[in-house]
Amino acid sequence: MSTSINDLRIYDPTAAKTPVASDPTSTKDMAQNFLKMLTVQLQNQDPMNPMDNAAMTSQLAQLNTVDGINRLNTSMGSMIAQMQSANFMNLSASVGKMALAAGKDVYFGGQAVTMAAKLTQPASSLTATIKDASGQIVNELDFGAVGAGVTDFIWDGKNDAGETVATGVYTLELKASDAQGQSLLPDPYVGAMVASVGMDGSDLRAGLSDGRNVLTSEILKWVMV
Questions:
Q1: What's phi and psi for 123, nearest 5 deg?
Q2: What are the residue ranges spanned by the domains of the chain?
Q3: N or C: the chain end with fewer CB closer than 10 Å?
Q4: What is the architecture, at CATH level 2, of domain 96-223?
Q5: Which burial class, exposed, middle or buried, applies to 47 when counting CB atoms under 10 A from its CB (0-12, 13-18, 19+)?
Q6: Distance separating the N- and C-terminal Cα atoms of the chain
Q7: pTM, whole model, 2 decimals?
Q8: Nearest residue to 157 via CA among 147, 148, 166, 149
C-alpha cells in the first residue's frame, strides 16, 4: 500500500482541535461524574431527610482506593518493564559463553562437552551413558556414590575404546539409585554456547549453538571454557 505526498496531513495551527473523548470507566471520570451526581442530589434532597454523611464519605473513600490501586498498578508495570529491560541488557553479555541448560541431546563438534546430573537426594551410584543416533552405547561414565545437588562432568567426545567419535548428535542417559537400591531420577543438563538472547513476550530466551532455544530460567549455570 503506497501513500502519495499529497495525501499527507499538514499541521494547521488555526484548525480547531478535536476534543479528546472521555472514558467513563476511568477513575478520574468516575470521580467527576460521582461529584456531579452528588451535587445534584444535595441540591434536591429532602430537608427533613438529609443524606447520610457516613455513606458519602464511604463512597468517596472507595473511589480514592480504586484510584490508588490503578496508580499502583501503573507504577508496578513500569518497574517490571524496566527490570525486564535491564535483565535483557545484562543477558546480552552472555552471548559467546557456555551455558549449562536442561536437556539430554548432546551435539559433539570436536570439542569436549560439559554436562551435569542434578539429584534431590544422595545416591549410592550414578552412571552417565552416551548413546549415538542408533541407540548404541558410545561411552559410559561411572561416578559411584554422589551427594545431593549437581554433579558436573565432561565428555571428551571419545568412545569406550578411546577413539574420538564422529561429529553429530548423541544422547545423554542418567541412572542412579539410593542406598536401598531404589531408582532415582537425575535431571540431565548439557552445555552449549549461547548464540543469541531474545525476548519472547515477557520471557527471556537464549538460543544455543546446538539448536536449543531455552528459557533463561532453565539455565543451571555458566561454565568457563
A1: -125, 140
A2: 27-92, 96-223
A3: N
A4: Sandwich (2.60)
A5: exposed
A6: 51
A7: 0.60
A8: 166
